[in-house]
């Protein structure tokens, strides 16, 4: 995937990765503020390696220090 897309008004609009991450940050912060940390989850599969799970854990904890 080279370009990000944002679903707005029923259509996907090309956006930069910086814009895409800004939208995700805004949505995560809104969910945390309105519903608390239990509202945020992450889904993975059994295909993830141990290193992948470790990186995911470190990334999520870095984003959402609880």
TrEMBL record:
InterPro entries, A to Z: Mopterin_OxRdtase
Any coiled-coil ranges, and where? none
Q: What class of enzyme is it?
A: oxidoreductase
Show where the Molybdopterin oxidoreductase domain sits.
8-52
EC assignment:
1.7.99.4
Q: Does the keyword Oxidoreductase apply?
A: yes
Q: Which UniProt keywords apply?
A: Oxidoreductase
**Domain of life per record:** Bacteria
Q: Name one GO molecular function term.
A: oxidoreductase activity
Q: What is this protein called?
A: Nitrate reductase
Q: Which organism is it from?
A: Salmonella enterica I
